């Protein structure tokens, strides 16, 4: 999000010589003095209170022009611009008007509700500190009730949220050691940006603790040296490029072609080093300067260790600055005169009130920031909190009967969304009774943070209250609160739950979902054309990803929603306790995993040995190392149901030795207190006795089938492996060499590695697939001979799977990435692979994979009569485009009403839920 901070409405702050400001503060109308009024220079620690006669006097070294602010409780704050040109003393008189709309503290507090609390959390993130800023816990608004919110719908432009405050915000910043009065003049939040400004007075906090004072002084120095003011000052003085900042010009003509996150490869390609003394700057004749930028500048904060996901091999903070007009103006201290002249993003764009210093702060010029990550990682709890994830699940309807299929959809919640691709790709789902016994389990893949699965409930399952639990192997490191647990109701056949009336329409969050539909008849069912319009709180269209369920309104009784996504996301606000520490003994799973223990048959064998893991007949393959105790862990396998996994340690002559045993994965502990629905039961009317089972249709024999359209070929469907990361075909194959083409696709033929995606790990050669035939685990020479032996003009396409998401389906064999080559003849032209797996000496284990389940039947053939069922439509991965989602729903004849439930998140992460009933 781009953030334009209109914090500093001032004109300059180049200190020169001693000046004096005198004046009075009086009440408008009566002319009476206002004693003890606050008079201060905006954005500084310099100020004074008026005496009993309303007079004040302020002396110091001021800039040629300043903003002087006068305030008094219950009166409207007044701001005046003061010029010192050609004079050392200025007389300023203020007349303050009584604030007629002022509300008492009790009245303001009474206006707070859940909606206000949600808006205030957003206000704090924009105004005080970002959620992952270590300073967030050290800055607080002590009078939050003075803030009020209003949704504004202008005649032109997008709608936005505005915040106002009748009284100054009282802020305590214990990170930098200031008490702050902030007189908020404007604050607005849009979907794609934010801005705020006001007048600010800083007062250093008094402390007798020498250590605390030293910490504050150090924090102030650190923040000054990474600030825009310091960067501007170093540009004006042409100071050394190597100590605090390094500047690069981001070339606009190269940015669209940028393909890597490798700094060394992008240097002199998409970015060019710029010396600060080469940046043009011109004096304006009034003590101020104009700085001209050649374009978008990339700023590297060399003294500021910080995580970033822009480069994989750079470990300091990065900012970007751009002047829309090509220039911006500063005073000789580097203070930006007009904040609208610059757009900041990256680290500098993160700056909120928690890190902003008063303009009269003078740094220690001998100070050098220590190369330490103390600020970034202040405790194990902060470091580990970033690594947390949690499962959230929902089902196609609120209760089930024995023998039914329960379809499951879900989303992963991440404390740090930038780490999503590096965390779990396997979720475990358990059905648990109230004796804390696991009745049924399933394992589903996590694909781009989404979960889709199904549980076929046993016909012998006893009716009653159960719980649905979801977890990953990794989040067992963080305790019970990181598990998902929700009630799961199994009703007795012939009965349905009886509950108090549930409102037919409810909304959680500020997102609106508006449905429109039309219905037409066909031979076997009715066709419902459904359109859902998603609008944000300002009634602007917004895209989202959501789970959509349509159930028969007469058959399915709606229960009070338990564990909505919005409630589930409250977990994001919870942090680990300060004393949390963990060995992180539960590894991340990138696919189906096996763990075990190896025992050598000879004490002279080395303590650490490679373990070879093979699925089937070399359908997947990988090697892992034991630890010094013989324990090993292999993950990344991708298969459904149960596979035969061969495991052995191999010596230098590739002969198995020793023995292995596989150990079961641990399950997390479960609380003895499980959630339940509140309900009674009542008999079902005979005509409503239907069950959710897949594939239950009646063939209409008299119906004449239409010609069946020829299916796509395996090649057209990428041999079942989904969309590649990148591909080339056509003219490119006619004009470029194989090496140039692979370079275009991010693959380096000399190192046999994809750029950026293996992060320096030892991964071996990529998996090569030629016309659908896999050629895994080739040695480097064989790989080069095979790939370089192709004439590109004879190929149909070359596709690569190199990112962590797309290559995961290939299992351990595709860990180093995948190159898929399709020839025009559809025949392999390279050498045949003769490798077949010889399992002699290996131990074979049956290992469960991902749970196979029947997909929800959304598209029955037109010659099959569609029976009534409780669930009419289920889509766990719905996505809107331009705020709209459209689909066709096959509705059985006899359905008179439909419950529509939508639950998901917007593109910027806000949860929403809506349920309504439509009548036919």
UniProtKB/TrEMBL annotation:
Domain of life: Bacteria
InterPro entries according to UniProt: CarboxyPept-like_regulatory, Plug_dom_sf
Pfam families named in the record: CarbopepD_reg_2
UniProt name for this protein: TonB-dependent receptor plug domain-containing protein
UniProt lineage: Bacteria, Pseudomonadati, Bacteroidota, Cytophagia, Cytophagales
